[in-house]
Amino acid sequence: MKLCLLSAGLIFSGSVISQDLNSGLKLHYSFESASGATVADVSGNGYDGTLFGATVGVSNGKNSLILSTSGTDYLDMGANTGALVASLSDFSMSSYVWVNTTNTVLSNNGNMIATFSNSLDSYNTNNGYMYLQAKRSRYAITSVRYETEQAAETGADVAKGKWVHMAYTQTGTIGKLYIDGVLKSTNPAVDLIPSSLGATAYNMLAKPSYNGDKFLSDSQISDFRVYNRAISSDEVLMLNGYSSELISAYNSLTLGDISALTADITLPATSGTMPIVWTSSLPLVITTDGKVTRPDQYDATVKLTATLTQTVDGVPYTLSKVFAATVVATQIADDLLANWDFDAALISEDNGTFKVTSASTSAFVGTVMNDARIRTIGTTTKFNVLDLGNGTGYFDMGTEIGKAIYSLNDYSMCGYFRIDADYASLNNDGNFIWSFSNSADIDVDKNGYIIGSLKSQSQSIATNYYNVGNQAVGANTNAAVGGWHHIAYTQSGTTGTIYVDGVSVATGQIANLPSTAITIEGRTGTLYNWLGRSTYKNDSYLKKTLLYGFQLLKTPLSANDISFGYGDFPGVADMIGQLNVAYDENPDYILPELATEMDNLTLPDLSAVTANIALPVKGTDATVSISWKSTNDQLIDANGVVTRPNYYNYPDTLTATLSKSGQKVTKRFPAVVILKEGTQFANDLLVKFDFASVSDSVVTDAAEKHFAGRLKKNASIRTIGTAVKYNVLSLGDSIGYFDMGTEVGKLMYNLNDYTVGAYYRVDTAYATTALESNGNFLWNFSNSTDILKTATGYIVGSLKNHASTITPTNWTPEQTIAYGSPALKGNWHHFAYTQSGTTGTIYVDGIAQATGPVTSLPASTLTRAGQLGTLYNWIGRSCYIGDVYLRKSLVYDFRLYRTALNVDQIQSSVLNVNATISALEAASNETPNAVKSVLDSPYKVVALTGAIQITGLTGGEKVSLFDIAGRQLKVSDPTRINVNAGIYIVRINDFVSKTIVR
């Protein structure tokens, strides 16, 4: 099907359609055949081309120039074609292009359909070219090089796997780009014409003029044409295969004046002989049979789309024409739709959150968000202003105002602002003073917005995204800082104007109107309407800025309105003067009653909290509200409820926010919450995972608190030794690790001097390149599972280089003590780190191998507000997502002490490292292929009443059954073994399980 969606305003060429597509045709490659390497110019003007690698034939149903995947195929149109270029002023260029779905280079620089250039090294010669490009669907021309290109483009690469028709026409300075017959881009300021380039020497299809740019490859080109006139939009459609009858029916279709509908309209069923199918963007307002339902308050603009279809030789050709119909609301809204002056009488409080009503009949209600606040300036004459803060503060204008946005054609947006002189991030992307958007994350949902930026003092309105359907006008300079200023945008017809401090600084053509450009079918308005926040998720918030008097009007203010005032509103210069006087007099006026209440607010002694705290919610002046926030709700919540922690006392801070009439002040109260009785540690040994106590995947540590860890992924427990047996942690050969649990993390927030260490055995089969890769952490205590994304600190011990590292963020400010040598393979070893004061020491096999200063201590470096300890405490896994897991390794006797063991304690009196290594070696030699536990078995052994059931058997396994006395029993059916009540050992090949039958 050929489908062409055209705006009602795009084609008005009348009912007479040019039938002579040969008129002015100066170059035409039909690619019907080639004579050797020569491709004929069928226009008869002698611009024959020469094939280099490319071939000619029928491809995807069209006679085509066929370009292989080599990236070197092209057609040379010859130097004599430069004479044609030198003769062109008004002109057209068109071509079909098919990019195969297998094409992998389309998004790279280059990918020209046609290039006319004065050089094959345009980067260095700076002498001009023009091209038609499949990448970005673009026409461009320059007399120098890419920095000065004048272009018309869609910004999107041509679609793959289909024929796409591209046509560029130029009349005077007006350049138009059509895709599949649809006008997609107009540039009214293309000052350069082909003759500006002179007689270009290098004229090629598929080859670029920049060294390093990609050839158009794995593609086909068909029906390439150059005219010495700007062909009409009707003729562009004819090149796309549309008949004059269908085009005439399209052109003659009108609906009359539909700019202010109050009653039903007639939607014709045919145009000429062509049937019409109608669709409506807002069926609740205008149905497809023309029934009109007027909205209550705001005019609604409805896109009515007429689709005309004609089938020629079995191929349907479709044209769609869009009409913008405005339905008048039953109640006419005032011109002033919104006016946020933040007057105290319009401010209300809801549980510490301020709501502000617009000083307009629409009475929209907005919300002060995050660290934004209402601030009063002045003493003699006071003004309430919005202080956006220095973080993520913004003002949410609510969804109701979005309904007004969808009604706008002519309109104005304006407001006063004061940016602190020391604001250093104004040049960052974002810094939007206002934003009205269909999405909170426009990078994901590219569905339209209006934004006003103080970075560029501009207004942008996009149907989709910054590079798709975006139109903008602006001064392109950063807003002034250090005083009050005013910015306004007015839309009158298709003219947009930016005013700064009452002076017009930029004007331009903006055809995107809110009522038609950003409306989404099924929605009644924009959902995300903000002051101070961007609709692009990663953009900067507007910070260190005060806002006042944001206004939205459904009429364009004149220059006199802005300069000298309108209605009850003063002129810009007058208002700026008042705001500057007030700010200079008192930049942050605090209500006396708030200051008094803040001074008088007290709490009982919080140095040793053991019980709930009574937190007042009103001041002695009942008009003052008080809300509370704790730095750690796990200790003290906002209602004063206390939860005493385990193991250690914890600090906390209660913050009281006192508020009245939109103003807020805060007062902080430090506290210490005392641990639960009986939970403190009696010994220096805090954690000992010797893997002796195992139940399913849960392993209990042997120290006094018996923390429960869990085997993860393909980690398992293995038993080594015969005379003396040891349970050891096997990390497997994939992503196995041991999770010590969050309770262990609570110890890390309370450590200064400490020792951490474990025995390990790395298999000789573990490749050295893998062992020396980033990761291979024997231990990891982290505040984040993705430390690159959330850089909140960790302690890690790596076998890559026998190093211990601590950081408050991520790798940038790390402090590390490292031996510098990777783990030895094939034997048991011990790795430990001790912290004594500000000295860190690495021990390998009980010998101090590296020592140095480490001033970052866990208790001060790792602690994070709202947490009681590190959340991700692992053996064998890194907190960096891209790091390798520790693999093909066994671990035994992981310990954590709250003291720095000395060398004697490590070697003999406490850890007895040398003797333990010898014992582990002997056990490994006794059982070189250690028996695996059922924890990593592919089989499941289940005790039933009077039977044992085994699932997961594939056939061929050796299944043995033993009673508690060690006697082997007969197994007839291994999937279900009938037995008496008792304790049994089931062995399946090398996998062993103990089960109790009742």
In short:
This protein has 998 residues and is mainly β.
Q: What report would you give on this structure?
A:
With about 1000 residues, the chain is mainly beta. The chain has six domains: about 20-230, Jelly Rolls (Sandwich), CATH 2.60.120.200; about 245-325; about 335-585, Jelly Rolls; about 590-675; about 690-930, Jelly Rolls (Sandwich), CATH 2.60.120.200; about 935-995. It is about 10% helix and about 40% strand. It has 14 helices and 68 strands. The strands form ten sheets. Strands 44, 48, 49, 51, 56, 57, 58, 60, 61, 64, 65, 67 and 68 form a 13-stranded mixed sheet that branches. Strands 23-24-25-28-37-30-31-32-33 form a nine-stranded antiparallel sheet. The protein is globular and about 100 Å long. The two termini are about 75 Å apart. About 40% of the residues are buried.
User: What is the overall shape?
Assistant: globular
Report the mean per-residue pLDDT as an integer: 93
Number of strands: 68
Q: Percent of residues in helical segments?
A: 10-25%
- Would you identify the CATH architecture of the largest domain? Sandwich
Structural class by SSE content: mainly beta
CATH class (first level) name of the largest domain: Mainly Beta
Strand % is 35-45%
Query: How many discrete structural domains?
Result: 6
User: What is the CATH topology classification name of the largest domain?
Assistant: Jelly Rolls
- Quaternary class: single chain
Distance between the termini: 73 Å
Tell me the radius of gyration.
38 Å
Biggest sheet descriptor? 13 strands, mixed
* Count of helix runs: 14
Segments where pLDDT lies below 50 for 5+ residues?
Answer: 7-18
